[in-house]
Amino acid sequence: MPKFDPFLREVIKYAFDAIADNMALTLMRTSHSGIVRDSLDFSTALSDATGQTIAQGVCTPMHLGCFQDALKNVIKSFEDKIFQDDVFIFNDPFAAAGQHLPDIYITSPVFRNSRIVAWATALAHHSDVGGIVAGSNALGAHEIFQEGLRLPVVKFLEKGVPNKALWDVITLNVRTPEKVLGDLQAQIAACKSCEKELGDLFDRYGVETVLQYADHLQDYAEELTKSEIRKVPNGIYCFTDHIDGLGENPQPVVLNVKVIVEDETVVVDWEGTSKQVPGGINPSFPFTKSCAYAALRSILDADIPNCEGFSRPITVKAPLGSLLNPKFPAPCGARGITGYRMIDCLFGALSSAVPDNVTADTTGGSTLPTISGYLNGKAYVFCETFMGTWGGTSKHDGQEGVPHMGANQSNVSVEMIEQDYPIRIKQYGLVPDTGGAGQYRGGLALMREYESLHDSALLNVRSDKRDFPPHGLFDGKNGKPSINILNPDNKPRVLPVLMTEVEVLNRGDVFRHIMAGGGGYGDPLKRKPELVLKDVIEEKVTIAGAKKDYGVVIIKNAEEFMVDSSATKKLRTQLAV
Questions:
Q1: Which residue among 82, 171, 428, 446 has the highest number of C-beta atoms inside a 10 angstrom radius?
Q2: Which of 331, 320, 403 is nearest to 62 (CA)?
Q3: Co-location of 454 and 537 in the same domain
Q4: Domain boundary, last residue among 204, 222, 240
Q5: Do residues 419 and 475 share a domain?
Q6: Strand ranges (DSSP E) for 195-342?
Q7: Are the CB atoms for 46 and 194 separated by under 8 Å?
């Protein structure tokens, strides 16, 4: 066995990471759609010749644990029919180990001395891939055939020559072909950047040395992960969470998890979770595994390499036919909401094992509003991953205006939306008194209002956390629930959290979405009065909210807010009984 220099290992590891991150930058800078360029709903990875992930780029953690299953399927499908400058494309969860149809994989082999030495892969969420709803996140779909264009593993380019027939099929089947084809070419550019930079690394250290260290990195990541798991107390940790349910008459969808920690291994078992549902929230099993990896990685302290070796000590189970391991032809288009809930559920279970390493419940991941229509005969599809807020922790309040840890994505700026679409953003900000009360307060809810500037636009919304708002931890209170309102200032109508039917928007119609607030951490009566005063001054908590939720009496003297210490002590004594 070769002896590995730990210093060279770190140099090569960071080189791999830089290559994957530069792929992400290339994809972002050359993409055409807002969902990729502005929301950052994409991921990149470098894999070895067998499909094992070596390094992952920034962006969406929930994507990244899926790459190994997808790449191994590509290699198995084509075996000895893979050539220099081939580019493969696929998206189907059942035929190609994909995630959902809007997430299209582009992957290409990296050759050196006439042999495959690595794979470069870029995955992007596309603005549209057809189907019954613009944006292809059809919550009301009953089968995957309703969700859009299904792509098995196919050569998009063979030996550098485009598969024109396939390009034509894609062009004809999506509502926004310029954006989709532009983003696909941006993904190809990202893979090319990986090939070039990996070639530079080979030139500097030698092909065999780099490949040996790539193999060693897998074993190093595995051992490091095991050493971190040993710090977690052995035990069985359980939790139950919910998705509100689909449509006008939602039936709660149950997620039930058992986390078994034994020495240096972890088993994540989803037995007891609801069966697959006739709606687009069923995730593929590779996605289910990926969400478990993302949650577990976030509670470990060490700087573990972003490679497949990390996942070796972790086993994920879900009954076939359940929500988290559905059978064909289950629809998967809006499966992201279930991914967020899996991570939230795992945090709930792990809170008893590592209370200082988790947050109280978050806003529940991104809300995905889609507003679409036709202007001058040409389709437009606006969609964004509207992110929000976290729950409190054992050390600080919940953060606001940040993504869920499962998807390191970004809210689109008001100016970019209004420049590109017939939409006006009327309001965008934080909502007071919405964070769950606690010794450390949950983050505040975000609110956004979208006004349609022309007739016959179609609105579709994926949201959650109304009937089951974000939970607090250790006597912390729940965050306030989410709500969707059509025309809030003129005959307001509440819309479902997970819309199975699109809503028609005419000129001047306004859609308001208020996210759920994050859960609180710890007893609210233990929150320092000066922190409550600071929240009141910053308009995060009202005077009435300070008194009701924290037992802190705030008075206003001239233009100055002050804590009435005597009244506060008396009130807190009464509330503690």
A1: 446
A2: 403
A3: no
A4: 222
A5: yes
A6: 235-243, 253-262, 265-269, 314-317
A7: yes
ω into 329 cis (within 30 of 0): yes
pTM of the model: 0.95
Question: Does 63 have pLDDT greater than 90?
Answer: no
Q: Is residue 277 part of a domain?
A: no
308 in any annotated domain: no
What is the per-residue pLDDT across 529-557, written as a single tens digit (0 to 9) for each? 999 999 999 999 999 999 999 999 999 98
Residue 397: strand pairing partners: none
Q: Give, to the nearest 10 degrees, the angle between helix 177-205 and helix 164-173.
A: 140
Sequential DSSP letters for 364-412: -S-BEEEEEEEETTEEEEEE--B--B----SSSPPPBS---TT----PP
For residues 540 and 430, the answer to whether their CB atoms sit within 8 Å is: yes
> What's the CA dihedral at 349, 354, 358, 359 to 10 degrees?
80
Work out whether the CA dihedral 401, 407, 413, 417 comes out positive or negative: negative
Domain stop point among 164, 199, 222: 222
For 207, the token pair is 């092909």
Residue 2 has pLDDT above 70, yes or no: no
- The tokens for 435 are 């964070």
> What per-residue confidence (pLDDT) applies to 1?
53
Whether residue 187 is found in the same domain as residue 174 = yes
Dihedral angle of Cα 118, 17, 388, 551, to the nearest 10 degrees = 140
One domain, residues 72 and 123: yes
Tens-place pLDDT, residues 290-337: 999 999 999 998 889 989 999 999 999 999 999 999 999 999 999 999
> 51 vs 334, 494, 557, CA distance in Å?
27, 47, 67
If asked whether residues 521 and 560 sit together in one domain, one would say no
The residue segments making up the domain with residue 385 are: 359-527
DSSP conformation class of 320: T
Q: Is residue 332 part of a domain?
A: no
CB 101 within 8 A of CB 129: yes
- Count of domains for the chain: 3
